[in-house]
Amino acid sequence: MELNEAQQLYRQVFSSASEQLKHKHKKLGKCVDRARPFYLANRDARQAFKQQQEAAGNFERANEKYNSAKGKVADLERIMMNKSRAFDGALQELLNHATVEVMEAAKLKRQSSDSHQQASLTFQAAQKKVKELNKNLKGAILKSRGYFELTAALNRQLDQYKQRIFSVENGLRMAKQEYAAALHALEQISDDIHQRRKQNKLNEALASMPREEGVGAESDDEKKQVETENRYHGDLLLGETVDGLDRDGKSDFLSKRILSDGDEEIDSDNDDATDRINARGERPSVTGSEGNSREDGVFSDIDLS
Predict the structure, then answer these.
(1) How far apart, in whole angstroms, are the C-alpha atoms of residue 74 and residue 70?
(2) d(CA 31, CA 144)
(3) What is this structure's pTM?
(4) Separation CA 270–CA 286 (nearest Å)
(5) For residues 154 and 173, what is the distance between their CA atoms, to the nearest angstrom?
């Protein structure tokens, strides 16, 4: 809004100044057009004078820098020429840097000197042209002085309004940059909040899920089956039978026992097995009924007498 107001005010002042100059030009007549080259040359001469002053200042600064660098080199050389002082590599490095500075300062001095000479020639030519025009157009210059003085005053006023516009534009540009930075920061904050919420929801979902057994863990059925198999194999190793009774309490399979080397499996229902035992001189089992017996004896050929 300030920029729009400043621009609108500038347009109003510019329009008013144009009307005033038109009215003044119409009142004075042709003398304004005749004297215009003089005022233009005078303006160029003022600009050439400013450029000459700037070039002179640059030349003076370059000359001071050159003299300072030369003095530094002279001091270092004086120290190094002292015979009582041993060679110092750091001092030699400083001397080399100082020599480079002298060369750069000398180059800058030459450039600034050339610029100053060129600016001086330009100013002299502009000043010479002003004098010639002042001599040839003296009458028209006197008559049109009021018009060009008014023009200069209005131009200064317009320059002030231009500076105001430039200032507001710079402020607007900075405000836009700050606004963009603030938006970027807000977007970053919003993204962080959404990321934290998403992570919290994920953690809650994981916490609410039932915990499963780890990799390699056995289920209950598998554990029962393994325990049954271990008990079965353990009973066999001990020479006992697995409990396999039916509803009447009788065994549903023939008893078996673990035999030693060279022995044969004995079936209590088989008469041939008894004959074989008697033939070998072995004592038969105390119990001859079906089923398992914990007192079954297995004898070898060792003489017990």
Answers:
(1) 6
(2) 6
(3) 0.51
(4) 15
(5) 29
pLDDT tens-digit series, residues 172-203: 999 999 999 999 999 999 999 999 999 988 88
Cβ contact 125:30 at 8 Å: no
Higher pLDDT, 181 or 280: 181
Length of the chain: 305
144, 31 contact by CB (below 8 A): yes
The three state secondary structure string of the chain is: CHHHHHHHHHHHHHHHHHHHHHHHHHHHCCHHHHHHHHHHHHHHHHHHHHHHHHHHHHHHHHHHHHHHHHHHHHHHHHHHCCCCCCCCHHHHHHHHHHHHHHHHHHHHHHHHHHHHHHHHHHHHHHHHHHHHHHHHCHHHHHHCHHHHHHHHHHHHHHHHHHHHHHHHHHHHHHHHHHHHHHHHHHHHHHHHHHHHHHHHHHHHHHHHCCCCCCCCCCCHHHHHHHHHHHHHHHHHHCCCCCCCECCCCCECCCCCCCCCCCCCCCCCCCHHHHHHHHHCCCCCCCCCCCCCCCCCCCCCCCCCC
Reported confidence tier of residue 305, pLDDT bands at 50, 70, 90: very low
Percent of the chain whose pLDDT exceeds 70: 67
Q: Which of left, alpha, beta for 257 (phi over 0: left; psi -120 to 50: alpha)?
A: beta
Hey, what are 194's tokens?
């959404």
Residue 283: closest CA among 294, 293, 298: 298
Q: Are 122 and 52 in contact (CB under 8 A)?
A: yes
Dihedral angle over CA of 90, 92, 98, 103, nearest 10: -140
